[in-house]
């Protein structure tokens, strides 16, 4: 008896190759965003693979993610925590907070004074996202008095692009201009600017440290143009049952799909609880025996159904491909009305993760 769970195969060779490709392209150093469990693919194996490839800067969102990545990569690399964290937390040593506003700066300079030594930090300047980072008033204050940063070992000044995936968007060059102006008024430290898409925007977006995430995992950082990255995720789930139904029979919740002809239906062990989004109902396909088979009926919590009428002899235990070369995370995202990031970061914990290419 094999397990009924789906299998998510992560190609660490592809992730590493993607990182090398970006690192070769960028004029400065290139790190890796491994937040959200490495965009759903596993932060620890991904970080280890990237370390072996030469990556020395990792970005996570939360302290707990940083602790896990530190265990994976050892003491050397920089691990920056984008959402920041208060000083003095046991176990946070060696993790570098991103300071996202003056209150963060005040807390860390006070901690540095108390510790009697400089504390490492990244300083985040908002240049047009109004999400995190020093706003214009806070920037004015720090620019007018660098003493406000006393005791901080500032590793990088960073900002984040809002529209990097739309190269012609006017906010891109505006953010580059504002970032340049901000850096000119701050202490001279290296800058960290581009995310994945930003690395493709040209020299105005170069910095001493890029912070790509999605492109490492195979998401197209240049939407509308051919994807320059390698696919890193393959998802397959087993058929639990195959049944024959007459024309006119309905499939699934809401009886939303009615067989137009006598049909063969394969019920597969994945559902919206696994991140196979309910919005995909009627919009996606699977790959079975090299053929594309349409998803029919609604996506349920743990089950989905495919019309496999045209496939010879499908059997329970056969695996249907849900994500792969023929149906990338970006393809699924388009079908569900979302972005590849959400497809990957929704990949459920019930899938068995297998790693290849390490
Ligand atoms: C997530 C994130 C990144 C990586 O962005 P991608 O679009 O996935 O390359 C970089 N910087 C910050 C601040 C982020 O939050």
UniProtKB/TrEMBL annotation:
Enzyme class: isomerase
UniProt catalytic activity: L-alanine = D-alanine
GO MF term set: alanine racemase activity
Pathway where this protein functions: Amino-acid biosynthesis; D-alanine biosynthesis; D-alanine from L-alanine: step 1/1
Pfam families documented for this protein: Ala_racemase_C (PF00842), Ala_racemase_N (PF01168)
Residues covered by the Alanine racemase C-terminal domain: 232-356
UniProt: substrate binding residues: 131, 301
PROSITE patterns noted in UniProt: ALANINE_RACEMASE (PS00395)
E.C. designation(s): 5.1.1.1
Modified positions (N6-(pyridoxal phosphate)lysine) in chain numbering: 35
Catalytic center residues: 35, 253
Cofactor: pyridoxal 5'-phosphate
Keywords tagged on the record: Isomerase, Pyridoxal phosphate
Assigned protein family: Belongs to the alanine racemase family.
The protein's role, per its UniProt record: Catalyzes the interconversion of L-alanine and D-alanine. May also act on other amino acids.
Record protein name field: Alanine racemase
Organism, as annotated: Belnapia arida
The encoding gene: alr
């Amino acid at each position: 008896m094999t397990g009924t769970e789906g299998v998510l195969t992560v190609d660490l060779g592809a992730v590493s190759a993607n990182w090398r490709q970006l690192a070769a392209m960028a004029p400065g150093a290139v790190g890796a965003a491994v937040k959200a469990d490495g965009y759903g693919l596993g932060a620890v194996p991904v970080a280890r693979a990237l370390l072996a490839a030469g990556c020395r800067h990792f970005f996570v969102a939360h302290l707990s993610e940083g602790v896990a990545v530190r265990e994976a990569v050892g003491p050397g690399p920089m691990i920056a925590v984008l959402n920041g964290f208060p000083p003095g937390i046991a176990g946070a040593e060696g993790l570098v907070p991103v300071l996202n506003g003056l209150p963060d700066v005040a807390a860390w300079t006070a901690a540095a004074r108390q510790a009697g030594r400089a504390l490492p930090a990244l300083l985040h300047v908002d240049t047009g996202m109004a999400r995190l980072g020093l706003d214009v008033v806070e920037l004015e204050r720090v620019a007018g008095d660098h003493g406000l940063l006393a005791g901080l070992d500032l590793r990088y000044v960073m900002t984040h692009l809002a529209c990097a995936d739309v190269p012609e968007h006017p906010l891109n060059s505006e953010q580059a201009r504002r970032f340049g102006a901000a850096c000119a008024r701050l202490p001279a430290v290296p800058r960290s600017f581009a995310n994945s898409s930003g690395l493709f925007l040209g020299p105005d977006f170069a910095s001493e440290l890029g912070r790509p995430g999605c492109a490492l995992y195979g998401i197209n950082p240049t939407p509308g143009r051919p994807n320059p990255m390698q696919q890193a995720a393959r998802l397959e789930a087993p058929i639990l049952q195959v049944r024959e139904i007459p024309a006119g029979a309905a499939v699934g919740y809401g009886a939303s799909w009615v067989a137009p002809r006598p049909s063969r239906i394969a019920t597969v062990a994945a559902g919206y609880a696994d991140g196979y989004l309910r919005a995909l109902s009627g919009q996606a396909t699977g790959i079975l025996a090299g053929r594309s088979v349409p998803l029919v009926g609604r996506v349920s919590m743990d089950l989905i159904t495919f019309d496999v009428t045209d496939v010879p002899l499908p059997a329970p235990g056969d695996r249907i491909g849900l994500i792969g070369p023929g149906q990338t995370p970006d393809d699924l995202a388009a079908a569900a009305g979302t972005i590849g990031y959400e497809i990957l970061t929704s990949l459920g914990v019930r899938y068995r993760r297998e790693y290849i290419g390490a």
